[in-house]
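Hello again,

I reread your note about wanting to compare the complex against the isolated chains. To keep things tidy I'm splitting this into two emails, and this first one only covers the full assembly. Below are the input lines as submitted, including protein chains and any nucleic acid or small-molecule components. They are followed by the predicted structure of everything together. The single-chain runs will come separately.
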Amino acid sequence: MDFTLIVQIVVACTILFLILFNVVLYFNDIEKDTVNYLIKQWAYHKYFFLTTAWGILGGHFFLGSQVPLLGDNTWLPVVLVIVFLGALFLIGKKQDQGFIMKRRIQILLLLLGVLYGHFFWSQRHLDFLDAPLF
Amino acid sequence: MQNLKHFLKEHPKVIRLVQYILIGLFVFLVIFDIFLAATGNITISEVIKGETEKGFFVLTYLWGVVAINLFFTRKGKKLVHEIPGTFIILGLAALIYFLKLGPMLINYVGNNPTDIRIAHAISMAFGLLMGYLFWRQDHDV
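Full-complex prediction:
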């Protein structure tokens, strides 16, 4: 069974749902309950792993080295993503209550994510790359 | 964090609900993707890759815009208010889609795998720039 259309519909519905949901939240009586606001609050406090995660997805979806550093191994980059994000999550959890992430470090986290997505978790590697480098 | 706590105290239910919906949506997508990969079907990544390679650059542009909106706040003055800003951002997305700027960019940069990544990177950077100009949130963390 070809899932392409189903996946396209699911992704499109997710994006549309988030846009419409956000519009409703923006115009309701309660202030600062929008999706953007809440995710920003998360990212600027303890859950800055979200910034890296967004970067990783960008690098993974849209870029991708032809010769990724782990070869064309499909599962190792995913495991490493979980390990890295889990580590950032735990580091965030350990911060004090009033912790605020610096803005320039957010950019660094985003960039590191993109670089990881490009150099480690590539979808565009060459076909002849058959053996993982280790 | 103080702000969020204050709002949580005032409107705990709505904000909690939004948070749970977001987490739920994320978990659903991850489980859906694991299901697709485990059953040997096309995964979300592969579908997105396929679409962007055909020039669906709305996605790369939106990635950049959303990255700035969520993760890079504005400390200085606003260039435009957030509602016109949102219209500008969505208007540009519509232009990219309807004027077929994605395929045009691919034609211009080139169609081999290296070039296509450059085209994607240009589109992502364009999204980041537009997000930076028109769609940053206040730095009221």
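For quick reference: Chain B has two domains: 1-41, 43-141.

B.
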